[in-house]
Amino acid sequence: MANLKLNLPNALTLLRIFLTPLFVIFMLEHQKGLSLLIFVLAAVSDALDGLLARLLNQRTVLGSYLDPIADKLLLMSSFVCLGVLEMLPVWLPVVVISRDILIILGLLLFTFESVSFEIRPSGISKITTFLQLMTVLLVLLEGGIFIQRVLPALYWTTALFTLASGVHYSYRGLKIYQQASENR
Question: SS3 for the chain, per residue?
Answer without folding.
Answer: CHHHCCCHHHHHHHHHHHHHHHHHHHHHCCCHHHHHHHHHHHHHHHHHHHHHHHHCCCCCHHHHHHHHHHHHHHHHHHHHHHHHCCCCCCHHHHHHHHHHHHHHHHHHHHHHCCCCCCCCCCHHHHHHHHHHHHHHHHHHHCCCHHHHHHHHHHHHHHHHHHHHHHHHHHHHHHHHHHHHHHCC
